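Morning F.,

Quick status update on the modeling queue. The single chain you submitted on Monday has been processed. Sequence for confirmation:
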Amino acid sequence: MEPIRNFLRHKTTAVKFYEAECTNVDYEKRLVHISDRSEVKGAVSGTEIPFDYLVVAVGAESATFGIPGVHKYGLFLKEVEDAQRIRKRIMDCVETAAFKDQSVEEMKRLLHVVVVGGGPTGVEAESYDLDNSKITEEIPYGLLVWATGNSVRPIVQSLMNQIPEQAHSRRGLTVDEHLAVRGANNVWALGDCAVANCAPTAQVAAQQGTFLAALLDQRFEVEEMEEKLKALGAEHCATSGPERYSIGAEMRDLHKKLRRKKQIAPFEYTHQGSLAYIGSEKAVADITWFTGDSVALGGLLTYFFWRSAYLNMCFSTRNRLLVAGDWIKSYVFGRDVCRE
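Structure tokens below.
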């Protein structure tokens, strides 16, 4: 992981970062309410931030479909904390299974991992056999991983309820071809919280982030040009002679640049392939060529390709060196299985 402050300290623009949870967005008043969720509390633990432009990129949460016991007994695959909980649970299960005088049946249960991921249709539907009796099966487990897809976060649902055009959306904030939230003014959304006719993957979100950053830069440049044109127009009316002609020529040139700047191309997702590590120093890949064709690969060479791609996606040279160093240590000394 890379601390976000490592990036901000090298930026010359005025950027403020607050480690907080967004608890509410008041669209009418243009306010974002935030709360400090850290263990250390100060005199102020909740406040609000006014906004002119808002980008919503909070992702989604795991869908439980209202099934009792999921939050209490299941572990999700969404956040870094989820991965840490799964790691801790696996270690607990292994150590408990190795406890003295543990029965074979209990050892099998503790070392049994159940992954639930049947999709919303399979989870919501009830299954019956031919004589209409309900099919039920009890599966003992030591670790339950819940991976049944995404659902809308409460903060996103609250914002959707404030925008009439979002009333009928069930999957998230519907956006146009420029990722602007439909029915809202100066609000954009990207990633899993947005409905943009793209798969909810990290690759899509990364490309959307790059596109939206360029779009906002372009929008701010347009606003600066319009302000400059307004000032030049007032100056043009107040002058005469050669100076008036010079200002007029500058205005015509600025008008041409402004027209070009306002021509913003829509977002287009470019699939660059998929990579997955499957263990035992093997990986699989679905690589898309420039022609649009794709090829499936697997094996040891694909594993090295996956590692090189992973390093390339790290944000800084420092992070690349740290990750590569961890890989080398794991290869030489084995995985670190300590608790913390």
